[in-house]
User: Fold this.
Amino acid sequence: MPTRLRYEDGTIRIDGPVPDLAFVESDPRSQTGRAPAFRYADLLDALADAEIPYTDEVHYGTTLDIETAYELREYQQDALDSWRAAGDRGVLELPTGSGKTVIAIAAIAELGVPTLVVVPTIDLLEQWREELEREFDVPIGQLGGGTQRVEAITVSTYDSAYLRADELGDRFGFVVFDEVHHLGGQGYQEIARLLAAPARMGLTATFERPDGAHEAIADLVGSRVVQIEPEELAGEHLADYDIKRIEVALTADERERYDEHQGTFTDYLAQSNLQLRSGEDYRKLVMRSGTDPAAREALLAKQRAREVMMNADRKVEVLADLLDRHSEDRIIVFTAFTDLVYRLSERFLLPAITHETGAAERKEILRAFRNGSYSRIVTANVLDEGVDVPDANVAIVLSGSGSEREFTQRLGRILRPTADGSRALLYEVVTEETAEERVARRRR
Amino acid sequence: MLTKDLLRVSRAGGGYHPQFVGEAHRDLAAQVIGTYQGHVGESRADLESALTALERDAPDFKIVRGFGKLLDREATFETRAPLPPERARRAAFEAAEDVGVVTETDRERALSRAADRLATDPDEVEASLYADLEDRQVLTAVSARYDPETLCQQYDLSLAQTALFDATEVRIRSDDPKAVISAVKRLRLMYEIERTGESETEDRSGAQREVVVTGPTTLFRRTRRYGTRFARLLRSVAKSTEWRLEAAIDDDGTERTLSLTDTDISVPDHEPVTDVTFDSGVEADFATRFQSLDLDWNLVREPDPLASGAHVVIPDFAFDYCHADFRVYFEIMGFWTPEYVAKKLDRLAELEDVEMIVAVDETLGVGETDDVEALTESGAADAEIEARGHRAIPYSGTVRVKDVRETLRRYEDDLVATSVAALPDEMIPDADVTTIAAVAADYGVSEDAIEDQLFPEHEQVGRTLVRPAVLDELAAEIEAGMDLNTAEAILDERGIDDASAALARLGYRVEWEGLGGGTITQREGASR
Assistant:
């Protein structure tokens, strides 16, 4: 009996003889050999090397006759060539706004195999699907945002891909991970493991992760094949930008409430002899709050203190000034707090997007912003990554979590070249003498 | 299932013990149910703050949250607004774009423009803007699914399911292994049957084998990916009456063991199946007829699953021998199609090393199978099964108990021979008077096994063993002309209840008087 390969729930089941390979295990449950699906390409190579005849029943469908009208810029073409030279595998690290999507589309057209594009947010999901529909004359599938439809070319959120990877893992010959640094998370890594797709491309503006998980990504998707810093493209392909920082004070009333809550929190730390030096310490405190009511009370107080600070009335006043000053500009307002998003939306009647916004309304708002019907928009963190909002030239960040990546990518949002080439402007509005301010200072 | 943040486990002693509420928090459950019912007509935000107030006094806020999570699924929330909120928003945002809202006055102007466009009042636009936000929706109904007791039961089940989210492997024993296997397959998991230790345990109902459940990729690395599927599996497992589940938990890198049994949790709204159900009339019929006989074999319905290569076979019955730890499996094969036959024969060929009897319906022969090469020359069903190392009983219509009895008899003969071989050459029971049955029970063998045994110090009187000295005493006490009742009383005193055999041995017979009594008389030809 010749060796027979079949895809089974995120694995390749191997009946018959196999060469002795590190990644092939003998499975007592099925009494066959078995390999993780992501080793499929390696497995084919090994069988060919050992001259073992085999039948391959891992079919991911027919080839696609598609092409793209995009003319790649020189650095885009170089990036694509390096990726192909690396065996159709690897990560491209390019600044936001450099046209990563265009490179991926060119790759899809060149390979012409069924392709899965995995993206972190609903907004990116919509954006990729629309872009692919515009470019290719084939139906585009979608997994996420309330739709579950599989086509030869399909866009999926990381969450949907995680849930369905073992079932769909043999449907695609090529997988694109947009914002590939997400793949570093233990759970999401499974997506890449369960897919059989031999060709893999990762896209990101910030590949390296402080937790070292980019090494795991390199194992699953391929190593970094291209790295371009924002400075290399600034001026020529990306808009220059300036940052302005505005500090506001808490009102007397807010200060009092802030001190009270913050006091409850620091008192608890003092009494329980806890110090918060790292995220790990904080995690311990959160764990302790599960069983210790005092710890829970302290955490709730900390949260209320943060809310006072984030919701500071004077920030709303500053925003009024900025909206007034930039009445002719296109403005995105960011804040991490959903409650604040709705407060600002109700106060200034700004179209708002949060995780609660339905897919249809979210799409409508983004479209209206793109086509100029709306010139202002307020969002929670949901637009953090790579969403294409062309020609916005003013961003106002009302609160920040202090994560390095989050910050650069928010900046990236307005680093799009505008029609007249004018400099973009980023305002960071922070409250004086608070933890939040220290976070902001640390960034610079 | 709850969310993981609501999980309550104790890691005492290195274990992983979900903190079940049992009946301890029924009052709290009642309070949470009451809070939901009392907030019909109010906003979710108000409901939430009432629940937060309850949390303060609760022993653990997570219990309140957990109860709330379960009740949320029974609650209906609706948007209450004068206008469809999305329409009100669009009108307001478009008007605001035209006005360029900065000040409060700008805002009012935009709202009244929007109201004009919608032919309504600005107040209505304002009130509708975000009335559909989750917090502002109104609780309109709570279904009466739970009372405090069933809420606690459901909580415990959900808590155990949540604890399984981090499981990497589960091992299950159940009195309904068929249901477990079919749930495993439905959930796209994989399993192996493992024997655990020797079959010396008292509990014969599948206790010697367990189903080890993992996911396809578990082969390569421990993963929590299948945790939610294990959680769903638990629901199927917990529906049976007797079960035990052990899970390996990956607790942030530390391996822990979670043990659950039918005493921990049950499925509310679900009556455990106590009456045995049968797949087919043939099986039900057989069970009834077999049990009406008093044999040395106990019938076990749906015994433990057996490994057959990469598959599992759960026979219809097993027979447990009463006098030894010995089990014979019994499968009734009916409904034949060529594919079914081929598959069955494959499974039987690969079956692990156990004793198996297969009843085959001779009206539907194996001759119909296409896979001729797999068959022996005869092509007869029973021959095929015997060729695979099992005993076959052909049947037509109904399985004859007599045939099964005869087949079992063959095992009995072997068992008797084996147990006789293990018995001492001579048996000297301590008691002056005992029975074959009692001695057999003492040695844990069947009566057949000791019938031919030597009892040098006892005489066998019927099924009773009596020391000669006792017989001599009896001979002195019992005399002709004695009332039967008196004689029986004397025999009974010595522990002999088989009066007729004893009297015959002593040379008497009974002269019957009517239905009740009688008189002892000398048997003719017998000398004293």
